[in-house]
Amino acid sequence: MLDIYKALLSEPWAVSIGTFILGLLIGSFLNVVIHRLPKMMEAEWREQCEELLCTTASTEEKPAREAFNLIVPRSRCPHCGQGIKAHENIPVISYLFLRGKCSACKAPISLRYPAVELVTGLLSLAVICVFGATITGLTALVLTWCLIALTMIDFDTQLLPDSITLPLVWLGLIVNYFGLFTTLEAALWGAVAGYLFLWSIYWLFKLLTGKEGMGYGDFKLLSALGAWFGWAYLPQIILLSACVGALVGIALMFIKRRGKDIPIPFGPYLAAAGWIALIWGDQINRYYLSVSMPH
Questions:
Q1: What is the pLDDT of residues 247-286, one digit of tens each?
Q2: How many Å apart are CA 134 and CA 235, to the nearest integer?
Q3: Which of 96, 87, 89, 151 lies closest to 119, judged by CA?
Q4: CA dihedral sign, ordered 155, 158, 161, 164
Q5: Global pTM?
Q6: Residue 83 φ then ψ, to 5°
Q7: How many C-beta neighbours within 10 Å does residue 205 have?
């Protein structure tokens, strides 16, 4: 069995196909995370508020609540409540086979589900093409999957869960203890500088306008990216995310006629810039140095 495994790893086509399929499967799980994690957070906050406000008497038994986490209950149609069978949950293929409709009530299934699966598969393939089937490639996959989840959750709820961002900070420091992406010293100061930079912008903007320009989750996400890539990559990530965010924000104002006071999540642009830095960061930095340094 070990010989077969080594033989498959030596074949680029086998690694590529395996990575793409793995990405599709992870993408299917990410759809669950994107949908359920914010609801789990809200339920936890509600329970904490009830305890704080003592809305339920201490002597009164609380009604039992249905278990709700990333594992249970089984996925079901949001329209009719029909449980999704195993053969209806095959990434992308099931969507095509069902023609984008629930098998029971024929209600349309959001195109976003297969899109997340497909994007996860393609980005996972790109990561392995760059880093290979190595420990560096594996850790880069984990980062990519987390960035996809954070992007979609922030788009939906304008939340960046601590349960994802904080472990990313620690994981970035751990992987760079072994020097996978940068030195531990650069990773440490990258985490510190990433947090403090957006924290300073937040308070400066609040002092000048009296409004909050971004959330604390953005600080933690940039801190995580600093921990993964080091402080030298932070200007690149900040500039890329700001440019993309400004362009998308202006486009939304014209296309959807959104008011300028309606908040636009910044996390997706940070995540996109972080992934670009993961794949092309070295080339971007080398190009910048080549054009900025005197010949």
A1: 777 776 676 665 555 667 889 999 999 999 999 988 887 7
A2: 28
A3: 151
A4: positive
A5: 0.90
A6: -65, 140
A7: 14
